[in-house]
Amino acid sequence: MKFAFAGIDFLGGVFEGLLDAGWTPVKLFTRPCDGVYDHNEVIVARARSLRLPIQLSRIRERDIEALQAEHGRDWALVVAGYPWLIKGWKGRAAYGLNLHPSPLPTGRGPYPLFRAVLDRYETWGVTAHVLADGFDTGDILAQEIFALSPRESHETLLAKCQMAARRLAAGPLGRDLPNRWKRSEPQGDGSYWPRATDADRTLDFRQDIETVLRRVRAFGTVETIARLGDARVFVAEAQGWQERHAHTPGAVVHRHRRHVVVAALDGYVQLTRWSPVPLAEAGQIGR
Question: SS3 of 163, please?
């Protein structure tokens, strides 16, 4: 099966999984990335090694028409980690599908991984579904569910999703898509989770240690935000312990080199990897 891939490195393993299943790529649609949290250098390098055409601008109907003119209708549009809604593929491609990092219909939306950790889900998953007119609402083609740990972090959950997505691509999608397509199942009612805000990322030291550290784990290297006195910092890593004390929650009670200990409701949080918020961002943190 020929396929055009729309995505970035986030779920780039889907591209490799389809190659493992014997599919033939014809084009890469990707987007500009900031190189901090969003990356596409791996998938772009892979496409260049295969001499594929690469498009950074948003997919328009004329782009799909051009693929139809070159390849007929015997190709699939595969989306994984692409932010824009894609229309106009029906009648021009044999298949249009998206891989989403949630157990749909739960967790529709741009990036549900943070909340999966924050809300202490015991299981999570990755879902392949038909491209529809609404984000993440199409009929389900395949799904893989896996367990989450009570100490799950953003990074471990991300790795689990990436590995599951590649398995889906190399297995049920890459080797059995026509049958999966015929047996696809409607999602029914679900939930849409909007993009996380800076308020979602902000640590509240009036809370207990477990709640504070869960938020740190939920955002991981994407970083939470904390106030230290009059300054704000990005926090990538922290530990903590329970201990009775008389300090005001949020007070800095100890410093050693780059480690800072902050009082919380029922103990202390030690910030072990953090960086100051640049002055240009201090008024509107939006990383």
Answer: helix
